[in-house]
Amino acid sequence: MRLHAALAFAACLAPAAAIFEDDAYHIDFHYALLGLPKHEATFFQKPYAGSKASLLYSISQNQTIGAVNPKDGALVWRQHFPSEPRGRGHLRSGHEQDIVISAIGERITAWSASDGRLVWETTVGSAVVEDLEILEQEDGMTINEAKDVIVLLADSSNSVKRLDGKTGRAKWTFEDTSGDAPFQVSTSPTAIYYIALHTPRLGGSKLRVTSLSPVTGKKFDQYTLNSDAEISSRDRILFAGANTAAPLLAWTDKANKVLKVSIIGTKSVATFSTPADEIVESIVLHAPNHVNSLTHFLVEYQTTVGHSAEVYHVDLKTSTISKAYSLPELTSKGTFTTSTSDANVYFTRITEDEITVFSSVSHGVLGRWHVKRSSALAGAYPVHGQSEVVVKSGAASAVRSAILYSNGQWALLRNDELVWTRPEFLSGTVSAVWAGLPEQEALAQALAEESHRNPVSAYIHRVQRHIQDIKYLPAWVQSIPPRLLGSVLGKSKDTTVDDIQQDTFGFHKLVIVATETGRLAALDVGSRGKVMWNMDLSQFAPDTSFKTPTLKAHSGYVEVRDPSFQGSLFINSTTGGLLSSNSIKTHVPLVSEGQDLVSFTLVDGTLKGFLESQPTSKPVWSFAPAGGERIVSYTARPVVDPVASIGKVLGDRRVLYKYLNPNLVLVTAVVDSTRTASVYLLDSASGQLIHTLSHNDVDTSRPIPATISENWFTYALTIDAASGASSRGYQLVVSDLYESPLPDDRGPLGDTSNSSTVQPSGSKGDAVKPYVLSQSYQVPAEITHMAVTQTKQGITSRELLVTVPSINSIIGIPRSFIDPRRPIGRDPNAQEQLEGLMKYHPLINFDPKWHLTHKYEVLGIKDIITSESGIESTSLVFAYGLDIFGTRVAPSFAFDILGKGFNKISMLLTVVGLFVGVLFVAPLVRRKQINAMWTI
Amino acid sequence: MSRRVSSGLHREIPSTSIHQRCIIDSATLSTHDTMKTSISALASFASLVSSARLLLQIPTTHLVNPSTLPSTTHATLQSSGLPLDTYLTRSNTFNFNNVSAGSYLATVHCRDFAFEPLRIDVSVEEAVEGSGEMKEVIRAWQTFLGNDWDNKGESRGEGGNGLVIEARPVGQKWFYQERQGFSPLSFLKNPMILMAVVSMGLIFGMPKLMENMDPEMKQEFEEMQKNGVMGSGTTNTAQQLQNFDLASWMAGKTDSGSAVARAPSPAGQAKKR
Hints:
The complex is a heterodimer of chains A (about 950) and B (about 270). Among the domains of chain A are: about 1-30 and about 785-815 and about 850-900, no CATH class; about 905-935. In chain A, about 10% of the residues lie in helices and about 40% in strands. Chain A has 6 helices and 63 strands. Chain B is elongated. At the A-B interface, strand 1, strand 10, strand 53 and strand 57 of A face helix 1, strand 2, strand 5 and strand 12 of B. Chain A: This is ER membrane protein complex subunit 1.
């Protein structure tokens, strides 16, 4: 018996199809993204003093800190804070230090620069860190040990703190109770300057500069600059430079007509006028941030069509600022970067097609490179960047620049060549849909056309189509030998697919993604997530900002909607071009005579169903949960959800009929005060309540993901400890729906001769209620999102895909492990063993073999979408959010395709061997047969 | 305020269970646990106390060198609401500051290794009975997911503020499935192939054997074949097996004679005739 149980258990373990080691990194792909890097918090830096190579550190606009290897663009480490409110993130690093220091919200954290380990962390309570600087020098001497950190905190009153570089403990605190708006801190070898904006009730702001003693934090001096004529808002301040030998403060007026610069620590203000012949759109000030460098800076003027620049020198002895030279205006967009080498300062001008290096001293060109064109950067211009320059004997011999382009690609250019690009614009993906490939659509269209003609013309059309197809024959014949060779020698051509093309197995499917920055892009999941096209939605609607675009796939095009946009945009899914709504054949949903479509939506906490034909009329039904419950989310059964069998065959060959209502909607609702959660199953056609489940001791502040597929639904919750629940952790609840508790019985449907749960609208009266079987399990970590695999026919068993953010993984739980029919408290009997049921155990441990993401660490996933592939065994999976991840899964093994384990060479050798054997044996057999004839 | 509560209070079936089927295995509950701390009583202390500080440390073992763990390794203390979360430091520890009183599930999340879950209780007690001086006390135990929360395992440490608790790895995670490659040996082990090989051996081997027999034997054998001994012999043995008298054999009947005698008798008779 025990052996039986062990065998049954082993049999059940086996279907947990894991990833093969040689498939990993081939069938799946992962974009480990940071987000759009921030200009002032991105820098090249050596991870520790004496290191040969430097890394590229950045904090992105969504507050992810990371280090990127400048050689290949690979992520070295990153840290992401999902729970931080959107605010300003800061990242700084001291010269020759082995830590980088970040400040996000109230957390100030030091990270090991080489591997991203935590060094120390301090939180500042309710305050928010406004600025962060490293104290490079003290009393004019460079600090060699751990450099201290100066932070500016904004709370009810502002304060400046000096934190110990080794531990993060505060050495002193300076409190400012004046009520000014904190702006920035800046350090100099002798003092720390705290800059605040003093804004009277009327008029502009005055800059108030307070100098503090670095040692004690006591106030040395305070002065106010008369800037109220120009500074109407914060963004008029261009620069408050830190860690240069002469910290600068620069601001401009509303029209960008005048530029005012003051050396921090002096009250004098130098005034310059900006170029008068052009309308200056914005001014950017570039200054070196190295302590020992020359005190030169560059002012960049951006106009609508191009940009120009002026270089200024600061004379420290006389505290005067003078213009040194100006760079000519170019009629193309571009940017400047600053780099230092010893005391020398170099400015690099980067435009779409050229990189030029200048010295800060004179306007002579030290080096010039023509950037090679590349498809990833087509039509995009540089937005900002960082550079490293190597200058030998007065000429720039090499330059490398990490540049953020306007299309959201972060690229590294080494001299004239593009070394890598990172598609950082994908980091804010908010919506994604599967789109078919064009060939498929074209053929489908042609076939549909033929089916609508009379037989003769359809036949002629078909013959013509075939004649036209003959022109592809020579190319196809030519492609056979290399294909055969490649297939036999095991050289997969998957990675070398250049353009969108149809493949035999249907793995090449396009996913169209929309980002919160209003970009739309298409990725080919079959060729490791290659970006096919990438474009800005606002070019079609100039005065709209697409923040939460939603997508809907149609055949050959996608429909884009946004709350801030009237109507919808139609985008060709293969080219990314705009389609006019006239050229689109709208597909009328298949509704037979006398039927109406009901659509439903959440309105003011009530779920309401409307007739699709009359959306403004009175709702057909509405559902509001009782007892002050708040609807958290609702999930409907997928529209396309093929089911192979309408029943579940038991061990004794009897059948349990599945409850397959296509209109099922799962609504989760919570009551925060009593910590209860309820799950309601509704019929969306009638609005009728079909089933209810309720839970106590639920942490309602945590997500309750839910999904519904076939005849089962599942959801996960977190147990709240506050009321002393006797178990702890996270639960997964699974429910199966059957027509009747008895096998071979169709429940209430049994008497009627012609009815089905698949088409409940056809039956009279109320929807039939199912028999619900539930089981709950404990899972070791919190689940935030759920999805179910999809296959073409629904024959393959399904897998529940869950996102587990604590281990940055996506896990596929086989359906057999979460079958609510698992026997409790006893071993399964022979019939249950035949079904593959195993004994109930309260804990479902996440087997590492279930991890679809294996060694990838997938962060910030917002949703998972699945699609069928061309073959039944395999389902395509795509996950998006901060990272992009795609793979394919075969929950019942790849039974209809030869895997890489199939050795074609040894098969050929076996066939050859058998043939040779036959050649040898044939004469023997013939002789024997002849002999046998003669002997009889 | 008494902190000890009779142990019967918390012996209830998990209230989150929604169906009779999801009874969490409570048979192994330890009943002799005297340190049964009431969670609700602990929670009421939260307002009184500032906070406790504790450290989880990953020891260097033969299984794992903690310095090689990825920097995304982090630990959580979950009780209610947002869990306390902290990353792995350079000294291979997780530092939890500001832990308020309560009973926490401590989990170490790592990409490459699995760690045992811990139960960590933080409470505030009087240092000396009656002195009125309150002090944080931290206790840690092994815990078992899928079991009653009061079902604690081995103690993993007890002490005041700044207690260091070991977080032990239980195993490495293996993500990949071994692919069964094609090998001639496994091909030969296939029962169909084995059967084919044996029958091939018989077909080719038997004539050779016959040739090598000495003429007398051969003659006898041919005669036997002619008489159908070989042919009927097999059915005979089958018959013999079917007629096997288990009861008499069990009774220890000295039987080899009778059993053998009975079986070949038809053949023998045929011969005699």
